[in-house]
Amino acid sequence: MTFSDEVKKTFITFYGTFVDTPEFGSLRIRKDTAVGVCMDVSIPDKFGKIQFIVEDCKDPLKITLQYDSSLIEENIQIVVHSTNYDNHINTFFFPGFIDTHIHASQYPNCGILGNDSTLLDWLNKYTFPTEAALSHLPYAEKVYDKVVSRTLANGTTTATYFTTIDLEASKIMAKTCVMHGQRALIGKVCMDSNSPDYYIETCKESVSSLVEFVDYIENELCEPLIQPIVTPRFAPSCSRNLMEKIGNLAKDKSLHIQTHLSENFNEINWVKELFPECESYTDVYNKYGLLNHRTILAHSIHLTAEEIDLIKLKQSGIAHCPISNTSLTSGECPIKQMYTDGIEKIGLGTDVSAGYSCSILESAKAAFSVSRHLAIKKENQDAKLSVNECLYLATMGGAKVLDMEKQIGSFEIGKSFDCQEIDLRSPTSTIDIFEWQVPTLSGTKPKITQLNKLEAFDINDVISKWFFNADDRNVVKVWVNGHNVKN
Ligand SMILES: O=c1[nH]c(=O)c2nc[nH]c2[nH]1
Ligand SMILES: [Zn+2]
Fold first, then answer.
1. Residue among 118, 233, 274 whose CB has most ligand 1 atoms within 8 A, to mutate
2. Domain Amidohydrolase-related, which positions (predicted)?
3. Counting Cβ atoms within 10 Å, is residue 193 exposed (0-12), middle (13-18) or buried (19+)?
4. What value of ipTM does the predicted structure carry?
């Protein structure tokens, strides 16, 4: 079926097993479930959104016609799992992943780190030259096209991107996301201080190109899935004047803000030297108008108790980027402790290219591992994140960080249908799961006496297999706002 076939339908009902994590640590499984999505462009308030969820449903078409008797059968599409596994749970719908921190412009360096690098020398040696090269627009086109298709292929339906300081290249990124159908917040990077002469703007240039970028997205592109995000790179590369000006713009237009915070000890000391008037790194952003409930703070590893309190007070969100933090030897962010301290807006970021993978599932596995290392180091089992908690960070946690928890992150009536279909036995899958391990939808156990001593696997085990053993080969389809964007 093609994209154009699909949009002719005014209603789609998805039918099968739905798995999501509505609360931190919970795993919700709804079998034989029909999820109805309005695809009628003449009703913009409902378009792409879930209209009903019916569990234990035997006939999804009948349920759809019961929901709205004015619908006619030709306009309804029923989408069932791509492969029928004879009543065994091998395939399920899961909310699309949310990447709360990724540098689209660094994608050419994904997998290139430099063994000896830590943050500040890595920026100068690898990152700034790579970003600056994208002012050559044909390069920008290629790189942005690849990173968006690659993240979608890995099940990322929403991403919060950094581009570069270049306005025209940033517009290309916005157009690319529209073309691929990905939901995205896109930030033209602002930096007017302490940066190489080949990759820096004046404060005036930075503000005016940001204003033009916001205007372009809001008034020319006009695509509801795409939002601009105010993006001061990090405190060392921004003057006080620049931070205040773009903070005011964010406030006036209710825009999101993203930046980096407290990633590495040399960086933290540098911020102390540059901003002696501020109490802490976090206080720099607060003092210059950048800290609020729509601010996304990447890393935030080495925070003091006062900084945690300030972030809580301002209700800002944290993008946990465990692959990056390990790769650049920046540190281990104590996510479980943050929850205990009352910070609940925490999501995951791939942080390509300090992170070597653009898969949020890989980041979720890394979050699991980093939390175990913290538990070993601190001799405290409470530091451990569970599989379900990591999956929450990858979906609902990310939605909260983006202040979009009413729109995305789980399957609820009124939310957009952003979804990935997972198939543990897709043709190219490398997951080995044996037939006696797979529970049936009705929960019956295999009738083999030798297996009586085996604990029967349940769907939690299946989800665990997926979490640890899967990759993009198990993402068979992806939808954003009801549109099939990956087949
Ligand atoms: O991981 C990071 N990646 C970056 O590009 C960057 N810039 C400032 N601080 C940063 N940290
Ligand atoms: Zn980053």
1. 233
2. 94-485
3. middle
4. 0.99
